[in-house]
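Appendix B, example 12.
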Amino acid sequence: MTKSKKIAINYELAAPDFDQPHTHCSTQGMFGGSSFFVGGGKENYAFMPLNQLVANALEVADSEGYQLPTVRLTKNNHYEIDVTVLRHFDAKPMGVPTPKVIRFIKAKAPTKKVTNERRIGHMIAGVMIDDMFAQPVHTFFERDYNTLVTDKHLLSPEYFEIADSLRDQLLPAQSQVIAALPQVMQELRNRYADASTGQLYQAALQLIGQQLAPILSTIQIWTTGFRQSLDPALKDKLRIVRAIVTSNLFLALTGNLKLDEIGTKGEIKQLIPTINVSVGDVVLPVLIGAFDSGPAVMPMASGALGPRGGHIAFIPWNLLKLLPLIIGIYAHETGHLLQAVIKGYMQTYGKLSADTIMKAAADGTLVFDEEFVMLGEQKIPSATFWAMVFMNQLPEQDADNWGMRATGAWCFIISFALYLAAMTEVAVGDMDHVDHVLRMGSSYSIVKTKEGKLQIRLEPHPQDGPRIGSWQAAIADLMNYPQAGAYARAFAASESGTPTPTRMTWVGQVPKGDDQDDDSLVDSKTTAKKPASKAKAPASKTKVPAKAKAPAKKKTPAKPAGKTQADEAKTNGQPKAAPKPAPKQPQLPTLSASVADYDKCCKLVVKAHLETPTDCLNGMTLQELVNLTPKMHEKVDDVRAKLRAGDGKLSPDYHTFFLTVGAAFCEELKDQVDAGGDPTKVFDALNAPAMEMLLAITEQWEADVKRLDVYKLNAQDVQPKTMKKS
């Protein structure tokens, strides 16, 4: 056993691709990595041809390690087929009993002279086989179809166009599954000669569902949200979530929340140019599982998730009782949506971040404590390194910026800190054994480009400690909330570790699907050994072979009697393989950099972001567009007094309270607990009047949106014509 040859490696830091959709909060850990189909606002989705669907499904079946599923038997000796494998969102168990033996391919036409009755019977049998799968597939899609057609009139009118468009995608999706099933089953039969009909049926559904996942998931997200919006037990809370996100979007694009002071819809004007998104776009809240995703907004990027100007606001079920606490979090999520729809926004502010750091380092305004950042044995100039860090962290840093300017520095920092603390306890259970709740480490991935270069791609989520203690603190200072800035620094110092760390790190990772045993990705000091051989990578799923050659039939053991799932598992055509050793991971160098240098960059970049007029904002600065100033913060103090008294009645100038209720709740909760109050009792006492306020605001908001016909605004009516905010 010999050590691999040491190789001197040069890495390059990769700049983010701001031309691609970026939905970092929304995509992390969601639905097991299921992808989504961006509808693009187009009339019809681009379904793949049937032969490509079948070929792609079979590529998965032919991949190394694939096994046919096990299938239960019913008391009547039928296979219990689970059609929910087609559902990638909000699955409800739905089994379809299937006979143990069914034909799923047509018999050949009779060659001998037969009676006309037999000839006609052969034709009828072919029709029956074609439609054999229609009933269970129809049953599966029926719930979504009823939501989009039968119950459409129960939805808010602004959803009608989206419902109609989704309905038009549902029928082709159903037809795709029905047409592909017998073809995939027959090909699986060629590969697994002794497999049961139930296994073939279940496997074909799974493989087809995987290929149609982006389209099916998109349709099902919307139909799930529509059904939830009609549920009396959920309706009011989902209305509040929708109003929170919609009002944030309206505020950001118009600089105005005072709908009650607007006379006609003609007075509503966007201040900044966007893609085909306007203040009249539709937001649909969707409740998701606690482990599917955190709070997130799925934005229109090049078009729409679900056509016709629609956005999805995800809210985990376990946050539904915390709405006043997480208003700041959803202001952050609205920031992600705005990043995607304001023309040239990410390119502008990404360049501004890098240029600010490079210029300050060049003219001596910025003097780093460390001249270089080490990557293994490679020196990276600090200015270059930090410019790349801030460009890669821009999506999250900027979303924090939106959240803080919309809800106030106090509200956002407190809600963010409490949310991280809660998430830590959810993850680890016993907080007595946790030294700190803020992480000082992040990650980077390293990939080889087509040109053979090794690129480092930094994770966009900043390390928690510097994110709060440096970035958010710097924003608070520039918003003239020095006490909030001091709180952020103190919290970061106390909850980042003992003693307070002075360094932040990035640990290297090889992305899934990349060559994980390639010595060319390994640092020169590692001793990882390259294996003698490698499995051939599967062919591209976009390529459709002219004629796929079926592999040799696989031998399977004789099927034993019995009906248990354990017995069924023995007949799946796949002998149990010995567990394979985990592939060796390249030992990539850990990046380590100075927190003090990060802090210096934060102060300069925050100032540039807040105070630089930009073309993408129509000549305005971020601070001019949206900024809850300390003067406006006086409204928060008024609401805090009401919450302390348990009074949920609103003052007449309700329009300021959508954001100030969240700020008042967070600040009052923190102050009362700091004064010795029991967290549970304080929360319960404040939550009831806060929810009463939020529902009243929602009702007034909805009335004004309807009065002004906001959802029927035309793009030409709202797009700006160099009309800087007065």
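Residues 1-8, 22-41, 300-305, 513-579 have pLDDT under 50 and may be disordered. The longest strand covers residues 441-448.
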